[in-house]
Amino acid sequence: MVCNRRSTVLRLLIPVLGTQGATEAARHGAFMFTERCVSEVEIIEVLDDVTHSRAVAFHSLGALHRREKQAARDALMQTRAILDDAGVPYTWKRVFGPAERTIAQYAAQVHADIVVLDASHLGFFHRWAVLARLWRFTSTPVTMLH
């Protein structure tokens, strides 16, 4: 993709879902930045509420929160390292809630021009279910990498 000044995307939103990170989305964002298609990159770390999972019956809530937070931190660090290595300026924020609805609300809130979602770790049916819900909840264009 080669961009000119008229087709510059101003704000790219990269959601980090769960413990897998968004490395493919970060690589794509770094490429778009070097091609001058992106001027701002924002990463959101989307954490689901663990109190609604079945694991609460077997583990303490505090232990579940610590485990999820550590795994999400590791995933976020991988994503950030790719952008750091490419010299891409970015901001990041942690948000809580159901993934698709939370991404859509945040994209609208920050006026994101495009959402780049790394779905390489999702199974086929889960990938399409996520994409269908995102399309239903947001008017922001969504690019799914797999």
Question: What does this protein look like?
Answer:
This protein is an alpha/beta fold. It contains four helices and five strands, in the order βαβαβαβαβ. The protein has helices spanning 23-34, 61-86, 99-110, 124-137; strands at residues 9-17, 38-47, 90-96, 114-118, 142-145. Strands 3-2-1-4-5 form a five-stranded parallel sheet, with helices on both faces. Helix 1 links the parallel strand 1 and strand 2 (38-47). The mean pLDDT is 83.
Which terms summarize this structure?
single chain; alpha/beta; 4 helices; 44% helix
With strands numbered from the N-terminus, the spatial order across the biggest sheet is 3-2-1-4-5
How many distinct helices? 4
* SSE-based structural type: alpha/beta
Poorly predicted parts = none
**Radius of gyration, Cα only, in angstroms?**
16 Å
Q: What level of helicity do the residues show?
A: 40-55%
Strand-residue proportion: 15-25%
Q: Characterize the biggest β-sheet.
A: 5 strands, parallel
Q: Name the quaternary structure.
A: single chain
Give the SSE order as H and E letters: EHEHEHEHE
| DSSP strand tally | 5
Distance between the termini: 18 Å
Q: Can you give the mean pLDDT?
A: 83
**Mass-distribution shape:** globular
